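Posting this for the archive.
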Amino acid sequence: MKPSDTTRVPDGSSRHEHFVQFYETDEFLLDSVSGFIGAGLGAGAACIVIATKAHREGLEERLQATGLDLATASTRGTYLALDAGETLAMFMVEGLPEPERFAEVVGSLIQRAVKGRRRVRIFGEMVAQLWTEGNQVAAIRLEALWNELHHTTHSFSLFCAYPIQGFAGEGYGEQFTEICQQHSHVIPDESYTLLASPDERLRAITLLQQKATTLEAEIAERQAAEERLRISENRYRRLFEASTDGILLVEPRSGLITDANPSFTCWALLLNRSWIGNSGRWDCCQTSQPSTRFYDRCSRIGCCAMRCESSPSQAAIPATSSG
């Protein structure tokens, strides 16, 4: 099943073309790139591939299967293949692409390829590598530098590609939009582009809209729940801090003290901290009731006995004044 005309990889005839293809599988990506590069080589254009080793090998296997002689093309300078990581290292400075170095490195590649005023096609995977490494800022900046290069060097048609899985999560919405805005043409992944009929594409769009609406509703509900939890925690914290009862929070299994309110802290000072061991553990954590020694000392300063109220995460031990 072939992509529709509106979602097909551009034919490279435009003088200043910069498009992006999103994809789910490497097979789909390599099919698209081989069509783009193969058509260029067949038409006498110079083609530059800056990609990962796996994608370069997969692409060359497909191109050779169509009868293209890549060895001869390389000798003539019409086919240049470079490693994305190694090329990035030539112009990255402190995690960002340095504009002058980028223009020098990539610009020189284009100048090598345009001998005889040939058209130039480029498949570039450096932006995708930066994105996959978590350096989204650098990826977006590099997209912008490619656009700037259009104004300072020979015209070329640029094919970028990103795995769609790299944009999973609501936090990437603005960055995804910015990536799309850097391109003259945006091609969806194969779950949409391989749909043949208009009816299938309309159903796919409708389903995506329904999913987007559902996701927005879920996000709104989660945000509301988080706000309710925040209000509840603030209310608890105010009560905890203001209470005249001494409250100590203890991990039931380990006996580690996790929190104590000001009232308990005052009583602890009066007790000379004798209830805390060298490791900061509650001295009666292995029993359900505080030790007799601690009970006696609390009574002498006006506190009643404390009890452990075990929960899955903590024990709250309140102390109330006898007065």
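Residues 1-7, 274-292, 299-323 have pLDDT under 50 and may be disordered. The two ends are 84 Å apart (CA to CA).
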